[in-house]
Write a structure and sequence with these properties.
binds zinc ion, single chain
Amino acid sequence: MASWSVVITVVPMCLAHTVGIATVVFDFIMCGRAVVQRNVGELMVADADNMRATFIKCNNAYFEGKLPLPNFGLVHRYDTCAYFHYNYDRWFGCKFYDPIIQFTDYYDFTEKMFVDLMCHEMIHYYLAYYGIDRKVKHGKEFNEMADCLNKKYRLHITEDYDKSTLKRSADAPLLKYWLSNLF
Ligand SMILES: [Zn+2]
């Protein structure tokens, strides 16, 4: 049996709001249902709990709950912010399995950035899961879906972001991350 793993893309995000200013934001109300509520001034370092909670909120708010819960993981990299990848059995029924979304714990994201990043990876997941784009690229399908979500929900999903403005996590040991990026 042969299988191959595909993927991944990641996107550094821009710091869209001034750190320290806590502003409660309510997203659009679609179909009479309030969507994600977030405090855009608060910072958050990725962990298993906030990745899972953000995924569930975004899945219900923006993806009609159509995505099964994937696995979540952390990476310790400063050159990327998040990844999506999965395994794929092309010999036995084209089975799609083991989807995983990973965030780096190197940066302290705003909650808005965290949501945008999660949605970015969820678009890759959606396109791969439904067989629309299993190469996990930023092609026509990705951009159309990102544009649609951005307009509909005031998100800021893009292919790439300026990482230079991101705040490093206070707990991020530089040597550890530097070594991680060598391999
Ligand atoms: Zn991507």
